[in-house]
Amino acid sequence: MSQNNEQQERLQKVIANAGVTSRRKAEAMIVAGQVAVNGTIVRELGTKVGPRDHVEVDGVPLSKPRLATYLFYKPRGVISAVSDDKGRKVISDYFVDKQERLYPIGRLDYDASGLILVTNDGELANLLMHPKFQVDKTYLAKVEGIPTAAALKQLRQGVVIKGKQTAPAKAWLQSSDRTKQTALVGLTIHEGMNHQVKLMLQKVGYPVMKLRREQYGFLDLTGVQPGEARKLNTKEVHELYQLAEHK
Length: 247
Fold this sequence. Notes:
Keywords: Isomerase, RNA-binding. One of its GO terms (molecular function) is isomerase activity. The structure is a single chain. By secondary structure, the protein is an alpha+beta fold. The chain folds into three domains: 5-61, Structural Genomics Hypothetical 15.5 Kd Protein In mrcA-pckA Intergenic Region, Chain A (Roll), CATH 3.10.290; 69-132 and 219-245, Pseudouridine synthase I, catalytic domain, N-terminal subdomain (Alpha-Beta Plaits); 137-216, Alpha-L RNA-binding motif (Alpha-Beta Plaits). It has helices spanning 11-17, 23-31, 122-129, 149-157, 196-203, 234-245, and strands spanning 9-10, 35-37, 40-41, 48-49, 55-57, 60-61, 69-74, 103-104, 113-119, 137-144, 160-161, 164-165, 170-177, 182-189, 208-216, 219-220, 229-231. Strands 7, 8, 9, 10, 13, 14, 15, 16 and 17 form a nine-stranded mixed β-sheet that branches. A hairpin with a 2-residue loop joins strand 2 and strand 3. The protein is elongated.
């Protein structure tokens, strides 16, 4: 089996990603002796394989999935997942016509909308989600009240959330409504703490009413409506790899 640990994945995951069956059923097939790697039957669930390994399931060579990454405009009220035990709408519901087994990269709050990437490229997903390779994400939040210059300065310097200091952020007042006492605040962060934007704005005294992710790295929502997706081209995928690896 391949010795390139960086590109190795568990055998059951590779089988599932190829669309043969679910990961759980793939595990049962491995234990039952239905899977061979490089001509040898493998029954160990901890087995890892790489791109050069030849995998067969019931004597049939495993076809490698074509990698695809999509930019998706997630509407509010959609779970950033492939399934939900409460029966709520999930991102995968918007990709039922695709042959690839796609998964969202990271997450976006249920009641938030905006840009999220969906892919079957495990290497790209791991890079973009790894704490070491933090990518800038820009949000537009509608808040109660009109943030002061001092509050925006606090956001730029970082605030303490759950005992942890956030990294300095870019923060600006996009617009305000004096009559309704609401405002639109722009915020760019590169961390991935759950509910971070909401918590940061709450911390400085301006609760979030609506939240949308406008940008992910160099990508934005231009030409894409809520519930729509577009496939990234080769150049864009290459730039995402470069963005993560050069952080």
